[in-house]
Each structure stands twice: as structure tokens, then as C-alpha cells.
């Protein structure tokens, strides 16, 4: 997944050895304490020499501006040297970055309710067409595919080959799935469980599942599975397919409308409340599919892209060494201190005469 970042590279800073930054306040405190003690010692020596510190001729005569610059340079060294030792690392995220996206598993609903026609031509074709465009827009996505109805199956592990995923979408559909009475419904919990076990077995981080479904669930362990994998760091996002008004579910084999055990026609409606509950429990995001499949675009921009950037900031491959900057500044401060030579230059002073009148001449 490509992050859309401003032409100027996005930069941030971290430190390889941040504990060394604690040296900065310690060194500043030592410098201040040394300066105070040195000032007291100088006053005491002047008093011992001249009998008082109020006599101008007894002062060393250092140049004030040189003293101030020298003090600033010493403080700069106390800050810059620990910064360089802490090894600052600059984050660079651009088109050449190795990590552009996050791995995610697409869980696609194959239940017969996906054949409802409240979305034209039906939910299945609208969802898969939008999903195919979504995969086209991610040039570096690492994607896996799970299909589910009553049972979830891993069709493709995580891979950069999104073309293979798109090919699978053309062959897997509710028309090709054999369903009996136990597997005719949609079991969202089984999809979450299957994706969670795959992430855990392969030690993959971060863990994102994108459910593409109408939200109807015939399982009994949805919340149990959701809470369990939420504790393992799995974030479930959902793309809701269908409308609240719903539509009748067609029969697959003999045509007409599917009927339940009571002989009533089956009407399927988008269950947004169910999907919002799942995504809220895991810290994911729910979006409706939309007329043009814009829900996938929203999901990429508002959830996947920020998550990808956050993951990139944890990868040291996206950082470059930045210690030459504070080190160069520290060297410049040291050279400046030597050039200034605060202790080598004194102001010219005129000393007061010991006698104001010549002594009398003795004949």
C-alpha cells in the first residue's frame, strides 16, 4: 500500500540510545555549579590580594562579550555531544521506502445472501468489482484471502501477488459453493478465527482483517472470537455490502426466491450494527461499500494509510543516521570557543596612581 505523503519527505526523529539524553541536564547542572564555584573562588582571591572586591584595578579584566560567547559555546557542547552519542535517527518515508503498507487479510463472504439484488447487479458482483479496483490501487500490498460462509477457508496466504487474488475472485462465488443446512448461513466468527490463527502461527504484525460482508451472522461465537483475537492485537475492519431495506435472497439451483423452514421468503438486510460492534471491539473501522465502491478508498485513506505509516516508523530500515548534524555543530562550537579565547584576552585598563601629588623635594 503506497502512502500518499507530501513531495517533501516526511521526517521524524528517534534515538538509538535515548537514555544518553539524560546526560544533558546533568552536564548543564555541572557547568552551572562549576561557574558559580569559580566566581566565588575568583572573588575570594581578589579579596585576599587587594583587601576588597570593590577595587576595579584588582579585577582580571576579561572581555565581557568573549566571556558570554564562551559560556554559550560550553552550554552548546553540553547539549550537542550527548545528542550525537544518543545516535539520532531520521525517519524518511518516500517512494523508495521498503515498507509501504501493512499486511492484511481479506475475508470475503460467500454466503447466498451476497446474491441479493439491493445493490446492482447484486451484492457479490458489486463487492468483488470494488475489491478488484482496491487491489489495483495498492502496488505494494501484502494481501491474503479467506472466503467463508458457514465455514472459513484460507484461499491464499499473505503475498504481494495481488493479481493472483484477483484471479481467485473470478472463480470463487456463492454459485460455486456447496451449502447444506449447517453451512448455508454466514459465520463471521469463523472468518475472524481463521485469520487470527494465521497471524499468530506466522507471527505477523500488525494484524488486520477486512471483512467484506452484509453483516448477517448465523454463528454463535462471534463476540467470543472477536474478543479473543482483539486481545491478540487483531484489528477487524468491515466493508458493509447491501442496504438497510434489504432484498430477497434468490435460490441458487432452481431459481426463484429462497425460503426458510417456515416457507417464508428470505429477505437479507445489511446488518451495520453487527459490523460496528465487531470493529469497535477490535479498534478497527467500519465503512459502507458505497455506490461506486468508495468505501474501500475511505478505508485505505483513514485507517490503512495511518497504520502503515505507524508501522513504518517502527522499522529501522526507514531511518538514516543523523548524528553527524549535532556532532558537526559540537565541533563548530569547540572551534569557536578556541578562536574566541575568553581567557587570553583582557581589556586595557588604566591603574590609579598610588600618589596623587609628587613627594616634596628634600634639600
Summarize the structure in words.
The chain is of the alpha/beta class and 363 residues long. The protein folds into 2 domains: 15-88 and 322-340, no CATH class; 104-316, Rossmann fold (3-Layer(aba) Sandwich). It has 9 helices and 11 strands. The protein has a 6-stranded mixed beta sheet, with helices on both faces. A 3-stranded antiparallel beta sheet has the order 1-2-11. Strands 8-9 form a two-stranded antiparallel sheet. A hairpin with a 3-residue loop joins strand 4 and strand 5 (152-159). The longest helix has 28 residues, at 23-50. The chain is rod-shaped. The termini are far apart.
Element order, helices and strands? EHHEEHEEHHEHEEEHEHEH
Helix tally? 9
Oligomer: single chain
CATH architecture label of the largest domain: 3-Layer(aba) Sandwich
How would you sum up the global shape?
rod-shaped
Strand order of the biggest β-sheet: 5-4-3-6-7-10
Query: How many strands, what sense, and barrel or not for the largest sheet?
Result: 6 strands, mixed
| CATH C-level label of the largest domain | Alpha Beta
Task: Write the CATH fold name of the largest domain.
Answer: Rossmann fold
CATH homolog superfamily of the largest domain? von Willebrand factor, type A domain
The helix content, as a percent range, equals 25-40%
Amino acid at each position: 500500500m503506497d502512502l500518499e505523503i507530501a513531495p517533501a519527505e516526511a521526517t521524524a526523529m528517534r534515538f538509538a540510545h535515548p537514555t544518553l539524553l539524560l546526560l544533558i541536564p546533568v552536564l548543564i547542572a555541572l557547568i552551572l555549579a562549576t561557574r558559580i564555584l569559580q566566581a566565588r573562588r575568583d572573588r575570594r582571591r581578589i579579596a585576599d590580594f587587594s583587601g576588597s572586591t570593590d577595587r576595579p584595578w584588582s579585577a582580571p579584566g576579561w572581555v565581557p562579550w568573549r566571556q558570554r560567547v564562551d559560556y554559550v559555546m560550553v552550554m552548546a557542547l553540553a547539549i550537542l555531544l550527548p545528542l550525537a552519542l544518543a545516535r539520532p535517527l531520521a525517519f524518511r518515508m518516500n517512494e523508495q521506502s521498503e515498507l509501504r503498507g501493512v499486511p492484511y487479510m481479506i475475508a470475503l463472504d460467500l454466503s447466498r445472501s451476497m446474491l441479493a439484488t439491493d445493490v446492482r447487479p447484486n451484492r457479490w458482483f458489486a463487492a468483488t468489482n470494488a475489491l478488484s479496483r482496491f487491489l489495483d490501487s495498492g502496488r505494494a500490498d501484502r494481501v491474503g484471502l479467506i472466503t467463508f460462509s458457514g465455514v472459513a477457508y484460507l484461499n491464499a496466504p499473505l503475498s504481494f501477488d495481488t493479481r493472483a487474488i484477483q484471479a481467485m475472485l473470478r472463480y470463487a462465488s456463492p454459485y460455486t459453493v456447496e451449502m447444506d443446512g449447517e453451512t448455508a448461513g454466514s459465520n463471521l466468527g469463523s472468518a475472524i478465527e481463521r485469520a487470527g490463527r494465521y497471524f499468530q502461527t506466522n507471527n505477523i504484525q500488525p494484524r488486520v482483517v477486512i471483512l467484506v460482508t452484509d453483516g448477517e451472522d448465523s454463528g454463535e461465537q462471534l463476540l467470543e472470537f472477536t474478543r479473543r483475537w482483539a486481545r491478540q492485537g487483531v484489528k477487524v475492519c468491515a466493508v458493509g455490502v447491501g442496504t438497510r431495506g434489504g432484498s430477497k435472497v434468490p435460490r441458487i439451483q432452481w431459481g426463484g426466491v429462497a425460503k426458510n423452514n417456515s416457507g417464508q421468503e428470505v429477505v437479507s438486510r445489511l446488518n451495520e450494527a453487527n459490523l460496528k460492534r465487531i470493529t469497535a471491539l477490535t479498534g478497527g473501522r467500519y465503512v459502507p461499500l458505497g455506490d461506486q465502491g468508495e468505501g474501500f478508498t475511505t478505508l485505505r485513506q483513514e485507517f490503512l494509510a495511518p497504520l502503515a505509516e505507524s508501522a513504518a516508523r517502527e522499522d529501522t530500515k526507514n531511518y538514516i543516521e543523523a548524528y553527524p548534524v549535532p556532532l558537526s555543530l559540537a565541533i563548530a562550537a569547540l572551534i569557536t570557543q578556541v578562536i574566541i579565547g575568553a581567557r587570553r584576552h583582557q581589556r586595557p585598563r588604566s591603574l590609579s596612581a598610588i600618589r596623587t601629588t609628587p613627594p616634596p623635594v628634600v634639600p
